[in-house]
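Milestone 3.1: sequence recovery, worked example.
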């Protein structure tokens, strides 16, 4: 089933007893995986959210994240002091800090933004999570890493049903008044969650998407999407494009052949009409008269 190579056709929850969440900015954790965090908290999972940066309105934005956490049912987040939009420049320090947090909290699930994100802090947080997770898996024990989406849809291999939590997540997103004054983030994320139910049937209206990888390979290496998988996706896309191009060319050829046939029919019709005209008595007299006038 080719479609299932690209997106799951069944929802399945993330399972964990201890969950560490890395959010570059206050609100990323709620927009990206707030429904999933609420489900995990309701099942008794210990959850620690870490917000990596402090930017403008730092105290206000942390208070907004704390209010959202209360609604969703997990503890208030911690906040580090990295500079907003400065995580790429602090790459090594961020990796060390994430690794220290893993050792201190000992989670079995780490949540972080995906590498498909466009914001540089989001991509840097993803890289730090994968690097620190690899180191943690090598030194301690296996770790599941689930990458979540915010600003850019990711290549999904896990969909979590959050239909019953739609209103609750909506209320939590409304806590971020400082950000909603700049952009309709809550409305857009709600649309993204609704879209993610596309393959899940009529019984599911909202879902959060993840790309799940495991830090369980040799020497604890993170099992990132394989080169073979990526090549397969590219080949599938190229094949689909080639099939579309072939279909378009075939359709165009058929149109040209039909036009040519119509042109040939028109030509034959014109020749028959001329032959009919040439065979008439009037045409013969007109030809003879022209000949006589030419002689004169």
């Amino acid at each position: 089933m080719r479609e299932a190579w690209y997106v799951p056709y069944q929802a399945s929850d993330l399972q964990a007893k201890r969950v560490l969440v890395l959010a570059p900015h206050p609100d990323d954790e709620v927009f990206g995986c707030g429904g999933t965090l609420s489900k995990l908290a309701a099942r008794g999972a210990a959850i620690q959210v870490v917000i990596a940066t402090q930017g403008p309105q730092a105290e206000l934005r942390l208070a907004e994240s704390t209010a959202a956490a209360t609604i969703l049912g997990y503890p208030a987040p911690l906040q580090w002091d990295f500079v907003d939009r400065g995580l790429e420049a602090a790459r090594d320090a961020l990796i060390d800090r994430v690794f220290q947090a893993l050792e201190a909290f000992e989670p079995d699930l780490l949540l972080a933004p995906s590498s498909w994100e466009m914001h540089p802090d989001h991509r840097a947080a993803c890289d730090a999570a994968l690097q620190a997770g690899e180191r943690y898996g090598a030194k301690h024990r296996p770790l599941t890493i689930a990458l979540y989406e915010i600003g850019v849809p990711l290549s999904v291999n896990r969909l979590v049903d959050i239909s019953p939590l739609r209103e609750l997540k909506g209320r939590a997103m409304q806590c971020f008044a400082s950000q909603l004054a700049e952009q309709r983030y809550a409305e857009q994320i709600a649309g993204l969650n609704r879209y993610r139910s596309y393959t899940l049937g009529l019984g599911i209206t909202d879902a959060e998407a993840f790309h799940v990888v495991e830090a369980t390979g040799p020497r604890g290496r993170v099992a990132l999407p394989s080169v073979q998988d990526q090549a397969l996706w590219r080949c599938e896309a190229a094949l689909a494009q080639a099939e579309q191009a072939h279909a378009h060319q075939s359709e165009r050829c058929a149109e040209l052949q039909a036009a040519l046939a119509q042109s040939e029919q028109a030509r034959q019709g014109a020749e028959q009409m001329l032959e009919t005209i040439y065979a008439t008595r009037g045409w013969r007299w007109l030809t003879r008269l022209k000949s006589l006038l030419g002689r004169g």
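DSSP finds nine helices and seven strands in the chain. Residues 227-279 form the longest helix (53 residues).
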